[in-house]
Design goal:
single chain; mainly alpha; 7 helices; rod-shaped; disordered N terminus
Length: 172
């Protein structure tokens, strides 16, 4: 059967005068021409194409149109590239990469706490309660009468005045 196919191809390549038509293209040549046209549209040759044929065709195309690429063609090429591009998954970061930032954050927090503890104001000595206040507290605790409560309120008022005056002096 292949002999019949070859003889049919040979007969179709013959002119009326019986000579072989060298300008007639074979299926292999047509496939190669189509692949070359696709490669020229894309801008790079496929593995099946001969590199010298691709370079020659690209040079001829460049000399014809001056290598001008319109926006629609550029968009089509970009879509082809994105369609064939492989999506790379992001690599998982190794555990030791997290060690440095976590350690630095811990050190910064420790330094901030130590700084706040060291910069706290010194304790302020409050005025000592006098004997009259202590006596009024003891009397009010031992005998809960209205007179003892009034005496305690008077003594506490005087003491509160002393404490507030000391705080005012401290924070002015």
């Amino acid at each position: 059967m292949s002999d019949e196919h070859e003889s049919a191809n040979e007969q179709s390549d013959l002119h009326e005068d019986g000579l072989i038509d060298e300008d007639a293209l074979t299926e292999e040549e047509l496939a190669e021409a189509a692949a070359l046209a696709r490669a020229l549209e894309r801008g790079h040759a496929e593995d099946a194409l001969p590199e010298d044929a691709f370079q020659t065709a690209a040079l001829l195309q460049f000399s014809h149109d001056g290598a001008e690429l319109d926006a629609a063609r550029a968009d089509a090429i970009l879509e082809d590239v994105f369609a064939e591009a492989k999506v790379r998954r992001p690599e998982k970061a190794p555990w030791w990469r997290w060690l440095v930032p976590v350690s630095l954050a811990g050190a910064a927090a420790t330094a901030a706490v130590l700084l706040m503890l060291r910069s706290a104001p010194d304790a302020m000595p409050l005025p000592r309660p006098d004997g009259a206040l202590l006596q009024a507290q003891a009397t009010a605790a031992a005998t809960p009468t209205e007179g003892a409560g009034a005496e305690l309120d008077r003594a506490m008022g005087a003491y509160r005045g002393q404490v507030l005056a000391a705080l005012e002096d401290r924070y002015r």
